[in-house]
Fold this sequence. Notes:
Chain A is an all-alpha fold.
Amino acid sequence: MSEEVLQQAAPGLIPGSGTARAAKPTRLSPSFISWLQAGPMMLVFLAFFLIPLVFVVIVSFWDYNEYQLLPAFSGRGYTDTFEGCIAQLPELCTIAKTYLKTLKLCFLVWAITLFIGFWVAYFLAFHVKSKTWQMGLSLLCTIPFWTSNVIRMIAWIPLLGRNGLVNTGLMKTGLINHPVEWLLFSEFSVVLALVHLFTFFMVVPIFNSMVRIDKSLIEAAYDAGASGFQTLVNVIIPLAKPGIVIGSIFVITIVMGDFITIGVMGGQQIAAAGKIIETRVNALQFPAAAANAVILLAITFLIITMMSRIVDIKKEL
Amino acid sequence: MKEGRPRSFYVLAIFFAAYVLFLYGPMIAIYVLSFQGPQGGLTFPMNGVSTFWIAKLFQGTGIVDLGAAFRRSLLLGIVVMIVTVVLSVAAGMAFRRKFKAQSILFYSAIASLIVPSIITSLGISLEFRIIDDLIKAHWNENFETSMGLLTSGLGAHLTWTLPFGLLIMFAIFNRFDPRLEEAARDLGATPWQTFRHVVLPIILPSVIGIGLFGFTLSWDELARSSQAIGAVNTLPLDLQGLTTTVTNPDIYALGTVISAVSFTVITLALGTIHVLNKRQAAKGSDAGKGLV
């Protein structure tokens, strides 16, 4: 099992001349080999994920002026963020309003992607009988995931713009006299684009849960006299729950931290949790950006903990 | 016995078709619009058909230096792809045995996947800024920055591609028959020979799938690059910058060019996977079949 080690130790080893090597007396211990195999990936996560997260927390407690970080303890990142939250009561302060709006967008996108994702997965898992067709249609849903998100966003411009297809169509049929303005660069277009981009993250885990459901369970439910609806509610949904939860975690965390879709599709006018961080970074207020990141992380973590109470993620993979 | 399809099949088939149309419709619209005539605007109807806007991109006289950004994105994508494949296969092999820190690595990967990208990106940018400050203070006052395409940029992309690579490896080894390796060992193969001649050929189609994920996720990556890439821009970042000042179809032309690369890579990868699966089926073993 010491493939990687041997590769490193003897890169010139010609396949087939292994008889000599097989007799090699020194064997590396299995745990050392595991370390060599998994170590590089662990190092990448350490250097580019875990340590950066620690820095976010540390820097959120630093001070700053107009153009640089000052490495001295300060709560300014947080006090600036929550400015007016107590003074303005009962009015909501900016940060509270922003988070409410983000949660609202999040909920809308979650509900819509769950609905679409569930039925698309259901169709693929239970109605498409041939394996080849199942493969082909899944691939059809996957390909857009491998293409650029920005392109999939700007793709809505020729359709929803003031002179776009939808408006021209509606004007021609005489349903409206003036172009509808709220189609593009609005909350509507943000939700539409997020659903367009991320329904994939619902389809895949739900489909995965559904194909594992033993078909004889459904037949048993049918034989026991359950209606189609009863089978759905009492058999399929409970068994697909792990997929639903995993998909939901994906979609919710993506939307909570999103600033690109909300920026592009909202015409840079809609405030959101991720957008605050970007704005602060652009203003070089890194501690304030970091403080916002910590808040966002805490809220995301809270949501995930609540959801993972429902299902053990590790068991489902 | 041939049963008729239930009515729910047709309802859901129409729903599925509508979803696919929703997925592809808008994208097709911009591919078509990027072939607008020179006088054409951002919306339908087409004002003549030409390759004017696409040609304009390659002349470099347009809004962005497409050539440079294109080469940077391609370089980064290829490096990310190679690193993702190598590290994922290695770590995937490690996970077949119990080892200490197994769950730490697993949860790091999952967390890296679901912690909002902007936070990871900000963290990497802070990390490199602090490293820069330290170098300036202690070693070299004229030091510019350690941030760049293949340092902070590469790291940022790997935090996104490696979790996918690892999860695909889990899926591969879930249905891998370990008796094949035992057989190889019994026949006197060294561990490396077992890997090279038995394990690798069987998992190869899926490994190409990991490469496909590695390249395309990096090629289109935006959120994690946004703060962590340093002074230079990748192609998607340039494209995003253009969205605030769209006035003519060159943004669509750029979109079409980026997509063309994505589709070429997807087609090549899927084609290779198909050929390998065919060969495997013809030669017998079905241990690594399916997937991707």
